[in-house]
Amino acid sequence: MYRDFYRQYMQQYRRVINVILDNWPLRKQLGFYAYLPIFFAIGAWTEFTMIHMRINGIDFYSVYMRKERERLAQERKNILSNVHLFRIFFEKMPFGLSWSSYLSRVMAALLAAACGSQLVHSVYRPLESDRIEQMLDAKRAELEQQSSSLSSTATTTTTTTTSKMVNQS
User: Fold this and answer.
1) 81 φ, ψ (degrees, to nearest 5)
2) pLDDT digits over 59-100, tens only?
3) For the CA atoms of the chain, what is the radius of gyration?
4) DSSP SS3 for 130
5) What residue ranges are annotated as transmembrane (predicted)?
C-alpha cells in the first residue's frame, strides 16, 4: 500500500516538474542553457547562507580555514598515484553524453553558480573587517590633527623668527 502511494506521488511530482521544465522561457531556443538563471540563483543562495548562517557560533569560513589546513597537512603526507587519478578522470560519462557536451553543460552550470555566488559575496564582503575601516578613520583623524598642529607650530616659529630678526636690526 505504501509503495503504491509513493509511486503515485512520484508520478504526480514528475508530471509537475515536466510541465514546469517544458514551459520554461526560451527552453526551445536555448535548450539546457535556458536553465542557467536557476543555477545563478542557487549559487547566490549558497553563498548567502555560507556568509550568514552560524550554528553555535561557527560559520562556514572558520570551518573552511580549519579544513584547508588539515587538507594541506594530509596532502603533504599522502600523494595520490597517477594511475588512480587517471582511472577516476576517464571513467564512463554519465547519461551517455559525449565529453564535449557533458563538459560544456557542467561548465555553464558552474559558471552561472559562480557568478551568483560572486555577486552575493561582493555585496556582503564576508572577509572584510569593519575594524579595518575604523582603524583607517582613526589614522586619518590623527594625521589631520598632526597637520593642523604642525601648521600652527610653523606659524608660531615664523612669527618668532621674524620678531628676532627685527630686534637684531
Assistant:
1) -75, 150
2) 877 787 788 888 888 877 766 555 555 555 566 565 667 777
3) 32
4) helix
5) 32-55
Bin 27: left if φ > 0, else alpha if -120 < ψ < 50, else beta. alpha
Q: How many residues make up the chain in this entry?
A: 169
Report the b/e string of 118-151 with b at 16+ CB within 10 A.
Answer: eebbeeeeeeeeeeeeeeeeeeeeeeeeeeeeee
Cell output for 141? 583623524
**CA–CA distance, 103 with 43 (Å, rounded to integer):** 19
55 SS3 class:
strand
Instruction: Look up the pTM and report it.
Output: 0.40
Copy the grid coordinates of residue 47.
Answer: 553563498
pLDDT cut 70: percent of the chain above it: 70
Sorted by where each begins, the domain ranges of the chain are 14-126, 131-157
Q: What angle separates helix 60-77 from helix 36-52, to the nearest 10 degrees? A: 100
Question: Which grid cell sits at 63?
Answer: 570551518
Calculate the CA 72 to chain-centre distance: 21
Q: List Cβ neighbours of 50 (8 Å cut-off, separation of 6 or more).
A: 59, 60, 61, 126
Residue 38 corresponds to which cell in the numbers above? Answer: 536557476
| Measured CA angle at 21 (ends 43, 92), to 5 deg | 70
